[in-house]
Amino acid sequence: MHQPGNLPSPNNILASLSAEVSSALRPHLSLVEFKHGAVLAETGAAIRNVYFPHNGIISLVVELAVGDMIETAMIGKDGVVNASCALDGKVSLNKAIVQLAGAGSVISADALKKVADESPALRALLIRHEQVLFAQAQQSAACNASHLVEARLSRWLLRTRDLADSEDLTITQEFLAQMLGVRRSSLSVVANTLQKAGFIRYRRGHVRILDRAGLEEAACECYGVVNAHYQRLLRSENT
Question: What is the pLDDT of residues 115-168, one digit of tens each?
Fold first, then answer.
């Protein structure tokens, strides 16, 4: 099913494009549903499709030999999954998993690359986006190595809330522990601390943010740093 051509896209990247580039992309874009847990890319596998989320959240993760997964970046309505294919990146460097169900636009990797090759402005935008993703991954690595679990969990919840546009988040404790690279028991203790502080209400598989300002106080600097990267990306002139 192709998208209507007369409405602005809910995806920030697509919405920032010039009319000319939008017209070139539109015939190749279709709507797609993101189901929780669906895998949109496998590490080392050829990239066939590119996704522009309208809502929902995609986690880029690194899988370890012992079976653990650690999140390196989070992509929502402010980004794009697998954009590197338009920059001659033929294989995925990360596994991409749907963290929060939603919908988006999908385009074949070949079609996006063709339009990007003909549009220096689009190619430049995708390069900036991949730089932002790289910066987010670096920030996540530093965060996991240096910051306390309480600050990291607060940062993660805030970022998820921003992309979901909702105070209510459907997230299992097991998934949270995997994404943050901590033991489930440690996460449970920290989540309980945030709940006692009145910042969140947590029950099995569900988190409700009660006090955003308090959560921002508890979060590490990484939340603001990642947000600033995306703001600089989108402040650039329309493509």
Answer: 999 999 999 999 999 888 888 888 888 887 788 888 888 988 998 898 888 898
Residue 76, both tokens: 């929502």
Q: Which two tokens stand for residue 22?
A: 């939008």
* Residues 6+ away with beta carbon under 8 Å from 147: 155, 220, 222
Structure tokens at 139: 């920030």
Of 127, 45, 125, 136, residue with least CA distance to 87: 127
Let me know whether 140 and 165 are in one domain: no
CA distance 21 to 238: 10
**What Rg value do the Cα atoms of the chain yield, rounded?**
18
Supply the angle between the helices 173-180 and 149-164 in degrees, to the nearest 10. 110
Considering the domain architecture, whether residues 165 and 111 belong to the same structural domain is answered as: no
| CA-to-CA dists, residue 148 to 42, 100, 173, 174, 181, angstroms | 30, 25, 17, 18, 12
pLDDT in tens, 209-219: 999 999 988 88
SS3 194: helix
Q: Which amino acid is at 36?
A: H
* Other Cβ atoms closer than 10 A to 135: 18
Residue 52 forms part of a structural domain: yes
Whether residue 159 sits in one domain with residue 113: no
Query: Of 114, 144, 174, which residue sits at a domain end?
Result: 144
Instruction: Give the span between the Cα atoms of 79 and 55, in whole angstroms.
Output: 11
Classify residue 8 as exposed, middle or buried by CB count within 10 Å of its CB (0-12, 13-18, 19+).
exposed
Which of these, 119, 126, 124, 127, lies nearest to 19 by C-alpha position?
119
